[in-house]
Design a protein that fits this description.
By secondary structure, this protein is of the alpha/beta class. It is 33% helix and 22% strand. It binds adenosine-5'-diphosphate and zinc ion (2 copies).
């Protein structure tokens, strides 16, 4: 008996091993095995079992089968094979992505002494192992035992002792209850909501104010050790702040999961509107058929898509006794949506949020696998949940780019969801107010069934959207600026400021969006024009004012903010390009009495920081919530009656074919946060491109019109959905060698296309990537484009299997990205 084993290595093949007789029962497809590989042992998964070896190399035996029941269920294995095939990735890497992290090392294998035989009849090695276990209590992780004993604890020895009943192997060991650990936290005890309050509290105690504001920037709480350690504040400053009762000290349990606390049935049951009921009936019917197919639910913001999801879950889980998968773009950003599922289905829901430890994640995985939990809510990788009898797969905000994984395997969870649903005979429901153009095209072509919720629940109108022309605002400012002064940037225009003031007066809430973080997006010398760049990436460095540092948003490089030009020595530096930190400052100054919360990557470092900020907004403790695209999604706060977009143009000119689509989606989504309650709402979009169709369509809430115009731009040259792409990126640490390698790879590919007379695949490039250096690696790419997915896949596969990039000192790598979401 032989097996083909998929190893998590970047190689396009599986490896053949022999199966010793005693392992034959356990050696099933999907089971984890330990195999010798290049003088080491590696963990892989059995792909196929065969009676003849595929290749005639010297075949080694499998050392151990690590699963009692295969960790990859038949469906997950089938799905993984499809991903490996379609996305041109090694099956072993796909399986490693699909399964809990712990399974890919041997950390989940434990051994324990079952009965002590004394040393009679044991070999020297066996005796050593038994002796080792004698000295310890409880199950021992095999990985640790082997670190200490090496070959004396090899799997054949372990298995032999197991057979004799001397020790027990617990492949999926009972997890010890994680001990409740606590840590000392400093929490803001008195909120200083206004600039005035701040001046009063701190006077000239500058460091105290800095410490306070740093904590604020971190979401209002920080571990004491972090503040006095890495952040460099003295314990004396902390003591003063505590004495002034600005900070409180708390002992915090290290893990506190707000979702765990929401009980079953916590939500009042809503009665679907007529429109919702129509959609729900359709889905219920489909779920009772053998091949329900894929549905695209296009529902405007606030049309009540979540209730549709919930009713579909009631049908398949409660009535039909099946299971279901719900994908959301990012758990932390959608606490309300996740909370609604929990409030209806309680303990039957596993929420796979990013704050789970590997162990906790593994526990959830097991409870899904055993059927103890029947619904999973999670980001991208939840599409691999090990459930059986899946009746529905829901993809909320299906247009979101975060469903695509950025590293191998570069799968798109929406597409995987469609495939899994087809395998399982489940309903696949894709929901969005602004569907991806690919999904929209599929719906128009009849491949997906289109369902629509064209109106908001309760007859609320969509909010009116007004454009503020930034060019005119800039002119206004220039007129008041002296000839030698640099005009200050427009942050909040007068008309938007007036609208904000009115909301503060009426105790309503405002959301301000700017999709760019930091204080200034670049620093430039006024004398010679030098712009500060990252030493490792070809991007400008962003200035962060509170920390007074320049940072790179690609590789996280940091350096102190400059005082002089590195080239000409001039002290005249200008900090350009407004980011959220600058908006926060401008807003604080413009509305000194307002309570402001900022939400972006820099303020959401802690595990539950998003949760905490959004909780404050929900409880009415915040007047103005400002942030990056993080605040554009899913939020449902009826008291938000104003949305302002500080600058709509930040992403529109990126050299990427989806830049316009993304801008339209972002504007529509954020505008949809306004006027969800009875008080109605208004939206202001500040832009220097008031005539751009993405902006105009957004102001008219016109998705269909936008899609038509955007389709026109993608026909010639053909971009998705009119063609399919594979982006081939060659990277290396030497510029010249990287370029040469990219040219050679592209030549090889064109040779292939010519030799095989492949007519409908076009090769574009090679050329430097738009961002041609990231993390010290130079990047070149070429694109394969075809209207024919099948032929494109064949060409891609041939290249993937046959083409090997030369090994040289540039550490060259090649990455194939099929159906890329961005070409940067
Ligand atoms: P979407 O996701 O489509 O933007 P949501 O699902 O967040 O919309 O619903 C918007 C709001 O309408 C939520 O506050 C929700 O509780 C409420 N809602 C949805 N359906 C109903 C209904 N049938 N009756 C009353 N309120 C509803
Ligand atoms: Zn200079
Ligand atoms: Zn960098």
């Amino acid at each position: 008996m032989f097996v083909e084993v998929a190893l998590p290595l970047p190689l396009p093949r599986t490896f053949t091993y022999a199966v010793p007789p005693e392992l034959r029962d356990a050696a099933r497809p999907g089971a984890r095995v330990l195999v010798p590989f290049a003088n080491k042992e590696k963990i892989g998964w059995i792909d196929r079992v065969a009676s003849e070896p595929q290749a005639a190399d010297r075949i080694k035996p499998v050392s151990a089968v690590l699963d009692t029941t295969p960790s990859a269920t038949p469906t997950v294995l089938r799905l993984s094979r499809w991903i490996a095939e379609y996305y041109l990735a090694p099956l072993g890497q796909v399986l490693r992505t699909a399964l809990p992290a712990g399974l890919a090392d041997s950390s989940t294998d434990f051994i324990i002494l079952a009965s002590d035989p004394g040393d009679e009849g044991l070999t020297q090695h066996e005796a050593k192992l038994v002796d080792f276990l004698r000295g310890r209590e409880g199950p021992q992780p095999v990985a640790r035992v082997r670190r200490e004993l090496g070959e004396r604890a090899s799997w054949p020895i372990i298995r032999r002792l197991e057979e004799q009943g001397i020790l027990r192997v617990e492949t999926e060991a009972p997890r010890e209850q994680p001990p409740v650990r606590t840590r000392r936290m400093l929490v803001i005890a008195r909120v200083l909501p206004t600039l005035l309050a701040r001046e009063e509290a701190f006077g000239r105690a500058r460091r105290q104010r800095e410490a306070y504001e740093v904590i604020e920037g971190l979401g209002g709480r920080v571990e004491a050790a972090h503040l006095t350690g890495q952040l460099g504040f003295t314990t004396e400053i902390v003591r003063q702040l505590v004495k002034k009762e600005l900070l409180a000290v708390e002992e915090e349990e290290v893990s506190r999961d707000p979702y765990a606390q929401i009980p079953d049935g916590a939500a009042p049951r809503l009665k679907p509107t007529e429109a919702q009921a129509g959609v729900i009936v359709h889905l219920q019917h489909a779920s009772r058929t053998a091949t329900p197919g894929t549905f695209l639910l296009r529902g405007v913001t606030g049309s009540g898509k979540t209730l549709v999801y919930i009713e579909l879950l009631r049908e398949v889980v409660d009535r039909q006794g099946k299971t279901a998968i719900v994908l959301v773009p990012e758990i932390a950003l959608t606490p309300q949506t996740v909370g609604r599922f929990k409030a209806v289905f309680g303990d039957r829901v596993a929420v796979l949020h990013s704050a789970l430890s590997d162990g906790e994640r593994y526990d959830e995985w097991r409870s899904l696998r055993s059927g103890a939990k029947r619904i999973v809510v999670g980001a991208r990788s939840a599409v691999f949940a090990p459930m059986q009898n899946v009746g529905a797969i829901i993809v909320d905000e299906e247009h979101e780019g975060s469903y695509k994984q950025g590293e191998a395997p570069r799968y798109h969870a929406r597409e995987v969801a469609v495939v899994r649903a087809a395998i399982e005979g489940a309903v696949c429901l894709l929901g969005s107010a602004t569907p991806a153009l690919e999904s929209w095209a599929n719906a128009k072509a009849g491949k997906y069934t289109l369902l629509e919720l064209p109106h908001r629940v309760g007859g609320q109108p969509l909010p009116p959207i007004r454009i503020v022309d930034l060019r005119k605002e800039r002119e206004k400012i220039k007129k008041t600026t002296g000839p030698l002064q640099e005009p200050s940037p427009v942050v909040v225009s007068d008309i938007l400021a007036e609208a904000v003031r009115e909301r503060i007066r009426k105790q309503e809430q405002t959301i301000l969006l700017l999709n760019r973080r930091g204080y200034a997006t670049f620093v430039q010398c006024r004398e010679c024009g030098l712009v500060w760049h990252c030493p490792h990436c070809n991007v400008s460095l962003t200035y962060h004012r509170k920390r007074h540092r320049l940072t790179c948003h690609y590789c996280l490089h940091e350096e102190p903010a400059p005082k002089h030009c590195a080239s000409c020595g001039s002290a005249e530096l200008s900090f350009k390009g407004v980011g959220t930190e600058q908006v926060e400052r401008a807003v604080e100054e413009a509305f000194p009495s307002a309570r402001i919360a900022r939400m972006d990557v820099d303020t959401t470092g802690g595990k539950w920081a998003h949760h905490d900020i959004l909780g404050r907004v929900e409880r009415g403790e915040v007047d103005i919530l400002l942030g990056t695209q993080m605040i554009a999604k899913g939020l449902d706060f009826p008291n938000v009656t104003l949305v302002g977009v500080i600058n709509a143009d930040t992403g529109i000119n990126l050299p990427d074919f989806r830049a316009t689509e993304r801008t339209f989606q972002l504007l529509t989504q954020v505008a949809g946060r306004a006027g969800r309650g009875p008080k109605g709402g208004d939206v202001f979009i500040q832009t220097a491109l008031p005539n751009h169709y993405a902006i105009i369509s957004a102001t008219e809430h016109d998705f269909v019109g936008f899609a038509e115009k955007e389709f026109d731009t993608r026909r010639d040259p053909a971009y998705p959905p009119f063609s399919r792409l594979i982006n081939v990126v060659v990277s290396g640490v030497d510029e010249q060698l990287t370029q040469e390698a990219a040219v050679a790879a592209a030549d090889w590919m064109s040779g292939l296309l010519t030799a095989r007379k492949v007519a409908d695949v076009v090769l574009v490039g090679p050329a430097p990537c738009p961002i041609d250096r990231i993390r010290t690696r130079w990047r070149w790419h070429f694109i394969l484009r075809s209207p024919n997915a099948k032929v494109l896949g064949q060409v891609g596969r041939y290249f993937y299997e046959k083409y090997r990039i030369p090994a040289n000192k540039a550490d060259l790598r090649i990455a194939l990205d099929r159906d890329p979401v961005a070409l940067l």
